[in-house]
Structure formats: C-alpha cells, structure tokens
C-alpha cells in the first residue's frame, strides 16, 4: 500500500504488476474501498497488466473531506494520481459510483482515458427524488453510523441469494461498508446527487468501452446497461449471471474473463 498527498487529501493506493504493463485504473463504488478489486488485481497482474486501485478520498485509508465531495473532485484526484505515477493514459474502470467517476474522468480528462470499463452504473443525472434520497441518507449516516445501513443494503449490493450462498463474500462486503467513515460517505452522497448527465459524454466516446452488469442487479439493472450500450453501439456488453450489483466480487471468474477478453481483443490490439 502506498500513500500520496495531493489536492488537499492523502490518497492511499495499491500499484501492482509490471510497470511496463498496460495500466488499468480501477475505481471502487460507495461505500467500499480499493480491496473490492482484489480478485481483479490478481487476475490482471497475472496477465501482465499494471493495476492501480486507489481508496477514494473519504473511503478506506484515504483522508476524509467533510461537507460535499463532487464526482469532479474524485476525477481530478485520480488524474493527479496518474500524474504522480507517471501514467499518461490508463484503462479506467469503475463500479457503481466508481463507474460514474470513470465517466467524469472521460468528461474532464479524456486524454487520460485509453478505454472505459463501466460496471453496474448509470449515465443520467439524479432525479429530484434521487437527490432527496441521497441527502437524507447522508443525514442518516452522520446520525447513526454505517452499521444499520450496511445490514439493510447487503441484499441489494449482492444478489439476495448470494448473501447466504456466499457468506465469505457477504462478510467481506459488509466489513468494507461498516469500516467506511460516515463523514466521507455522506460527503460523497451529497456530491453525487449533483452529478451531471453523462449521456452526451458516452455518446461521443470513440475509444473501446466495456459495459458489465450483474444479471440480478436491482440498483442498476440490465436495462440501465442496455441504455448505455444504445448510446455507445460499438461497446462490448457482458451480463454476469448469478450476480447482483457487485459481479466482480460475486462472480470474479466470469467478470475477470469478460475484462481480460476485452483488454486482449479491444484494447491492446488498438494500442
């Protein structure tokens, strides 16, 4: 694990694999941390790729910014991290909020993005109801902490049947959620509520794009992934069976196979 002070925060990150390998930046969602990507990090580095997995500010071991953190703040942090690592361009992937941060990185720093991997995420801006929900949830996390929320949503983060079928995975996901600082989570929720609409950004993308979704995701269902694919018709789309909102954790072998095939057939061939 490494740490760097940038843009008023201390960002912790892992940087695995050969320095000359294809850089792959993986962005976790809310309310997780960089260890969510451990199964992908192992598979990618074994295939010769360089894997960079940061804790976003407010999550994991990175420092907490109170108040409101916009997706643009996260994207600028990641661009600064790539600067620090001497990485000009990377394959940028993210799950859920991390996928929206990947789209924000494409919007603000398109020259840094070699290809996009968008897992279980959506492109439109929040509705008024969505904004209200995120702000209420932020208030609740500050008042109550993370434990009750984590217990309530585990059956949506994972497909409900996987909570009992995969107790070790469920416990790992719960531990990440419970360990998250509520101030960091609340700041991200408030900022995410004000995110822009990324549909125009996606529609303009000419670089390789992989869209992944768990077949039983209830937060961002297959229809959301199909809507993004309609915007980017040249994109590759993979539906991961027997998975919910976190297919990389629930079905890592299937997720990794789709990711590695994409990198081999769509990215390295066009490098």
UniProtKB/TrEMBL annotation:
Q: Work out whether the entry's keyword set contains Hydrolase.
A: yes
Q: Which UniProt keywords apply?
A: Hydrolase
Task: Extract one GO molecular function annotation from the record.
Answer: hydrolase activity
Cross-referenced SUPFAM superfamilies: alpha/beta-Hydrolases
Query: Which Pfam family, just one, is annotated for this protein?
Result: Abhydrolase_1
Q: Which GO terms describe its cellular component?
A: membrane
**Residues in AB hydrolase-1 domain copies:** 23-247
Q: Which domain of life is it from?
A: Bacteria
Q: Which InterPro entries match?
A: AB_hydrolase_1 (IPR000073), AB_hydrolase_fold (IPR029058), AB_hydrolase_sf (IPR050266), Epox_hydrolase-like (IPR000639)
Asked whether the keyword Hydrolase is assigned, the reply is yes
What's the protein name? Pimeloyl-ACP methyl ester carboxylesterase
Organism field? Streptomyces candidus
């Amino acid at each position: 694990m490494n740490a760097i002070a940038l843009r008023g925060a201390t960002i912790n990150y892992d940087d695995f694999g050969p320095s000359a390998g294809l850089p792959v930046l993986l962005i976790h969602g809310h309310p997780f941390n960089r260890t969510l990507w451990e199964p992908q990090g192992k598979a990618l580095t074994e295939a010769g790729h360089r894997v960079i997995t940061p804790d976003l500010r407010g999550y994991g071991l990175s420092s907490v910014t109170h108040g409101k953190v916009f997706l643009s703040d996260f994207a600028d942090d990641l661009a600064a991290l790539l600067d620090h690592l001497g990485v000009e361009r990377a394959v940028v992937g993210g799950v859920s909020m991390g996928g929206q941060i990947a789209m924000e990185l494409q919007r603000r720093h398109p020259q840094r993005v070699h290809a996009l991997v968008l897992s279980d995420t959506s492109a439109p801006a929040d509705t008024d109801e969505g904004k209200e929900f995120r702000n209420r949830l932020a208030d609740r996390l500050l008042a109550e902490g993370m434990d009750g929320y984590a217990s309530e949503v585990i059956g949506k983060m994972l497909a409900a049947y996987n909570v009992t079928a995969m107790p070790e995975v469920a416990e790992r996901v719960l531990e990440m959620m419970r360990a998250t600082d509520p101030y960091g989570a609340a700041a991200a929720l408030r900022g995410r509520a004000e995110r822009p609409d990324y549909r125009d950004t996606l529609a303009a993308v000419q670089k390789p794009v992989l869209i992944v979704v768990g077949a039983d995701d209830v937060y961002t269902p297959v229809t959301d992934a199909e809507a993004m694919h309609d915007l980017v018709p040249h994109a590759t789309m993979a539906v991961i069976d027997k998975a919910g909102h976190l297919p990389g954790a629930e079905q890592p072998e299937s997720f990794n196979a789709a990711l590695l095939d994409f990198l081999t057939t769509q990215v390295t061939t066009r490098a």
